[in-house]
From TrEMBL:
Classification via PROSITE patterns: LYSM (PS51782)
Organism of origin: Thalassobacillus devorans
InterPro entries found in the cross-reference section: Gmad2_Ig-like_dom, LysM, LysM_dom_sf
Coiled coil (UniProt feature): none
SMART domains: LysM (SM00257)
Protein's name according to its UniProt entry: LysM domain-containing protein
PANTHER family documented for this protein: LYSM DOMAIN-CONTAINING GPI-ANCHORED PROTEIN 2, MEMBRANE-BOUND LYTIC MUREIN TRANSGLYCOSYLASE D
Length: 265
């Protein structure tokens, strides 16, 4: 499953940009950008780009979570809507004090990663595999050359929005990743007393890694970074399952802000 394990940037072309200048700015290559965006026939003449088209710029950087480059006229609300997340979360993980004030060319960490299309893929199959919807994928990829609902090209990089809640954003593992005992689980959370719970279940609802907790670097109202491990308490009974990351209510201990990440074993 060709999940792109390196960071990509989502960049909106400005007048005067060339593939060379974009590649040099982000430490990518012309060839990588052309491949990721299918910048050749039948979509377009090879390497031809137009202002306000949106490009995926692949790099060799880590982590794999995507960054969005702010374009003139962007607002945080519109960016959040593109990735099916909240303004609060986007502002929190990017340390933005005033959600109404973002800057041209500012880099925003966004809950999304990229996937390289394989022969035989459809948007329905991709959406099902990663626990999202066709509509969410279409919104995240709008204004990109080469992106169509009915035709997707092998080798093309598709933006996949990550599941989030208002208060939790899981960066590792990515949906579709294969995990084993000791796998790290990481992300950002705005939770009471900075306590983040997690567990792993297989698709037969068997608890593979029982509930454990870790502590985020900051407590609410800030979004703190958390990192923990997922030790297996028993072997999975199916080839697929999910990692659940959540908090518990201080009032009645109920689960809150549950984020489900579909994985394989």
């Amino acid at each position: 499953m060709p999940i792109i394990q390196q960071k990509s940037y989502m960049y909106t072309i400005k007048r005067g940009d060339t593939l060379y200048s974009i590649a040099r700015r982000f430490g990518s290559t012309i060839e990588a950008i052309e491949q990721a965006n299918h910048l050749y026939p039948p979509v377009t003449d090879r390497g031809l780009i137009f202002p306000e088209d949106v490009l995926i710029v692949p790099t060799g950087e880590q982590p794999a979570i995507m960054s969005y480059v702010v374009f003139p006229g962007d607002g945080l609300r519109g960016v959040a809507a593109s990735f099916q997340t909240s303004v609060e979360l986007l502002a929190g993980i990017n340390n933005i004090n005033n959600p109404n004030l973002i800057y041209i060319d500012q880099l925003l960490l966004v809950p999304a990663f990229t996937y390289e299309v394989e022969t035989g893929d459809t948007l329905y199959r991709i959406a099902t595999r990663f626990g999202t919807t066709i509509e969410a994928i279409e919104k995240a990829n709008s204004d990109r050359p080469g992106f169509q609902r009915d035709i997707i090209w092998p080798g093309y990089h598709i933006v996949i929005p990550l599941p989030t809640s208002t208060n939790i954003f899981v960066t590792t593992p990515l949906p579709g990743n294969k995990i084993r005992g000791g796998q790290r689980v990481e992300g950002y959370a705005r939770v009471f007393e900075a306590s983040v719970q997690h567990q792993v279940r297989d698709n037969n609802n068997i608890v593979v890694s029982r509930e454990r907790f870790t502590t985020a670097s900051e407590g609410a109202p800030a979004y703190g970074f958390f990192s923990s491990t997922l030790p297996f308490d028993r072997q999975p009974t199916s080839s697929t399952g999910e990692v659940g990351v959540y908090s518990r209510s201080a009032k009645d201990n109920s689960i809150q802000d549950l984020v489900r990440i579909p994985i394989t074993f």
